[in-house]
């Protein structure tokens, strides 16, 4: 259900942006929107996903090192 919601909202937003920015002759509007969403995905990965991955890795390392001591 989450994937459906993401596609529904993302597709609707992207379509509206492309339609708003389209100049009638070039594909710059679509290219710009695709670039914008790609940069947003990179930013989300760098600020949300990557820190969480590091935190999980530290927790696993601490758990493993503590279990080796006993």
Pick out its properties.
70 residues; 2 helices; elongated
Describe it.
It is a single chain. With 70 residues, the chain is mostly helical. The chain has one domain. It contains 2 helices and no strands. The chain has helices spanning 2-21, 28-69. Helix 1 packs antiparallel against helix 2. The longest helix has 42 residues, at 28-69. The protein starts with a helix and ends with a helix. The model has no long low-confidence stretch (mean pLDDT 90).
Alpha carbon gyration radius: 20 Å
Give the proportion of residues in helices.
over 70%
User: What class, by secondary structure content?
Assistant: mainly alpha
- Stretches where pLDDT is under 50 for at least 5 consecutive residues are none
Number of helices: 2
Domain module tally = 1
Largest sheet: none
The ordered string of helix (H) and strand (E) elements is: HH
User: Distance between the terminal alpha carbons, to the nearest Å?
Assistant: 44 Å
Query: Can you give the mean pLDDT?
Result: 90
Q: Strand tally, please?
A: 0
Percentage of residues in strands: under 5%
Shape: elongated
Quick structural gist:
With 70 residues, the protein is an all-alpha fold.
């Amino acid at each position: 259900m989450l994937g459906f919601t993401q596609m529904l909202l993302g597709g609707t937003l992207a379509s509206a942006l492309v339609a708003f920015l389209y100049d009638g002759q070039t594909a710059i509007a679509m290219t710009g929107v695709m670039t914008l969403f790609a940069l947003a995905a990179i930013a989300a990965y760098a600020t949300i996903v990557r820190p969480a991955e590091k935190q999980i890795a530290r927790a696993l390392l601490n758990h493993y090192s503590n279990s080796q001591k006993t």
